[in-house]
Amino acid sequence: MEYVDLYLIHFPARLKGEKRFVFNGDDVIPLDMKGTWEAMEECNRLGLAKAIGVSNFSCKKLEQLLVHAKILPAVNQVEMHPLWKQTQLREFCSEKGIHISAYSPLGGVGVIWGTPAVLANQEIKSIAESKGKSAAQVCLRWAFQNGVSFLPKSFNKERLKENSEIFDWELSGEDMKRLNLLPQKRVALAEAYVSPNGVFKSCDELWDGEL
Ligand SMILES: NC(=O)c1ccc[n+]([C@@H]2O[C@H](COP(=O)([O-])OP(=O)(O)OC[C@H]3O[C@@H](n4cnc5c(N)ncnc54)[C@H](OP(=O)(O)O)[C@@H]3O)[C@@H](O)[C@H]2O)c1
Questions:
Q1: Could you tell me the maximum CA-CA distance found in the chain, to the nearest angstrom?
Q2: pLDDT score, position 140
Q3: Which pLDDT score is estimated for 58?
């Protein structure tokens, strides 16, 4: 490829040496926020990345990045579904003009960082039944009506089709109200980045209280 459409900083942390997917909190070192974002901006200026952004950034970490940024991050890709609405972060990003993209919009059922709780939620299932839709479709339509982009993943042909069939019907104001009243809890805590002696001593510190 000569360029990518969108290039993201995956996580607001670095790993020591050659560490990639297998690591613990002691392998984590602080992100060079200024240097990394300057390099991202250079990729954008050179045309290698049409847009640049971040992922898993809290309001506080975005604020730290914005101090240095000449180019605003186009996107912050974060966990978002009806059980983790990201209200505070969405308000912050909306004020700054940063688009939110929702990962694990179905709760990440079946993946190590995810939970079956979203698709198994009784309120979501009851709304789905009343509309003749699936719980997954309700979650994706909810994300769509909240004005974010969303990244459902499926390796299954039928479910891929099902997930795309959300644009010719809508959730009512009452449905949205019911979904917006669901108890909130971040699912993907990313505990692997946390260690009592590390850069992030708790999940609370890692996510700057956005739990
Ligand atoms: N930036 C980050 O840090 C970050 C973190 C996590 C994820 N992501 C990205 O976000 C995307 C999706 O996230 P995710 O995989 O965590 O979560 P997800 O899309 O919420 O959930 C995926 C799971 O849901 C199942 N599924 C898909 N459609 C379904 C349906 N209609 N009914 C029932 N089950 C369904 C899939 O199984 P089948 O394949 O069997 O259908 C898979 O097990 C991925 O592209 C991932 O790379 C980014």
A1: 53
A2: 98
A3: 97
Contact 77, 55 (CB under 8 A): yes
CA of 115 to the centre of ligand 1 (A): 10
26: left (phi over 0), alpha (psi -120 to 50) or beta: alpha
End-to-end CA separation in angstroms for the chain:
38
Share above pLDDT 90 across residues of the chain, in percent, rounded to a whole number = 89
Domains of the chain: 4-203 (3.20.20.100)
Ligand 1 within 6 A of 110 CB?
yes
Count of CA atoms in the C-beta half-sphere (13 A) of 205: 14
Report pLDDT digits (tens) over 77-108: 999 999 999 999 999 999 999 999 999 999 99
What's the CA-to-centroid distance between 127 and ligand 1, angstroms?
21
What does the block give as tokens for 34? 């200024």
For residue 185, give the amino acid letter.
K
